Amino acid sequence: MNSDRRYPDTVSGPFEVPPLDFVDREDRTIEIRPYDGSEAEHESLVEMYTEFDPSDRAQGIPPGKEERVRTWLDGILADDCLNLIAWDGETAAGHSTLVPDGDADYELAIFVLQPYQQAGIGTHLIESLLGHGYEHGIRKVWLTVERWNHPAVSLYEKVGFETTGAESFELEMAIRIGQDDE
Amino acid sequence: MKVLLGFGGSQASVDALERTVDRAVAAGDELTVALVETEGASHTELADQVETAVDGTGLSVELREIDGEHASELVALAESEQFDELVLGGNTTSPMGKITLNNTAEFVLLNSHVTVTLVR
Fold first, then answer.
1. Which of A40, A125, A136, B91 is the most buried (most CB within 10 A)?
2. Residue A1 pLDDT class (50, 70, 90 cuts)
3. What is the tally of structural domains in chain B?
């Protein structure tokens, strides 16, 4: 992506940090923890993404077939990425990820399994990921979102993302979570 | 079928070239490759890449050089010479793996009256 990306001057945060738990709007106790690198958690994510409703895919992810899900996850669960998983007991209900863009900044994405949507899990997943990222020295984060996805855009704005590119099919949004020299 | 491929030398367009050549050989398509200097490669360098890809397939490919506004010139060429299909390798992916359309692909998709195939 372009390295001359614009970021807000205003610093957002501080944000909550994982691990944390809360009761969602459906009275389920949800725990958010960093991905521990284990085979078991990796497989739980594969299971979550193979059950993902195709209508909730965005810009080609998550991919539609298990084999492609595995290839995609191998990339974003790598050691240089940050990943959080929202758990309902043993079930992976949601996942948020920060992937380095090669320019010292990070691309963010968040996914919540359909039965767990609109229960407040997404807000915690994104805010705690930003808190987690700050602890790991990340200061600038961006994402793209389909412009008709109003619920997602509202969530990102609520957290502090600003629209930085609107000339394409997708909106580009960016957030600053700390000063560069912090 | 009369096929026009836009070729700029990026990895995506190399993939699109290989797929389109394979298909043209299998289906007997009449293939024209429009050379677009978007990635810093000259028309001559692009032409060499195309010759290499076609070499040994027995396919005869017509080459055209695109100047000026790439996207609109591509669409104009496809329409004015009655191509059946315009093929592009217009996808790039973000670090996350999200597919994003480059400006050329976006313009072509929105404006072409010729059927467009985006190779992924």
1. A125
2. very low
3. 1
Contacting residues of A for B97, CB less than 8 Å apart: 60-61, 63, 72, 75-76
Q: Per-residue pLDDT tens for A141-162?
A: 999 998 888 989 999 999 999 9
Q: B96, A76: Cβ pair inside 8 Å?
A: yes
pTM of the model: 0.82
> What's the CA gap between A54 and A35, in Å, rounded?
24
Cβ of B95 and A59 within 8 Å? no
By CA distance, what is A145's nearest residue in B?
B98
Averaged in consecutive runs of 10 residues, what is the pLDDT profile of chain B (120 residues)? 94 92 95 90 94 93 92 95 92 84 87 92
Say how many domains are in chain A: 1
**CA angle (A27 as vertex; A24, A28 as ends), nearest 5:** 70
Q: What share of chain B is helix, strand, coil (3-state, %, to 5)?
A: 40, 25, 30
What CATH code is carried by the domain that includes residue A104? 3.40.630.30
